[in-house]
Amino acid sequence: MDLNAFYRTKSREDLAAGFDLQFTDMDMGEFIRLYPGMDTLLPMLKSFEGIINCQIAATTRIDTNMNVVLPTIEGVARIKGDSLVLLDGETFAEIAKMLKFKNREKNLVDSIAVEVSIKDNQIEVYPFIMKMDRYTTAISGKQDLDMNLDYHISVLKSPLPMRMGINISGNMDDFKFRIGKAKYKDTNLPVYSKVIDSTRVNLLEKIKDIYKE
To answer: Can you give the pLDDT at residue 102?
Structure first.
């Protein structure tokens, strides 16, 4: 693990914190236990089991009780893992039933690399590929910090004789699925790595500036 962080107290009404965190080969369950806020920001993490590598950089204001003021979070995250298990959950169960998965209890994911940005109370999950069971999918979407979500899954490869899209909307307690057109045609997805890297570098520079001051 490698961590750079700051806690700033200009006044009682002006409290802030920030961090740049990297770690390798960490168990997903241990990650969520150490950083409990992450499964709130990225609820999909609770559906996975296995070893991941991660880079996270963020700044935020905090209140006098040391609670994060969620709408003020600005940051990026990159999460990678191989041979992860997608656990049984309500969302997965619905999708597995719809697509007729062979294994509907849990499913092995060959690899996953998710890039995310958080700004202005909005979480954007950039397009990424996920392969599981007999399917190859491209996934992207947005959600706010109140857990209202709008995700799209393009089914690129499957036993079905057609390409299709699955749109998920609503919130974590009440979401709906709609079948529609596939937004992505193949695995050559738009690349946002430069956006993530530049934002992370800028946040790290903010942390270094705090040290200098």
So the answer is: 62
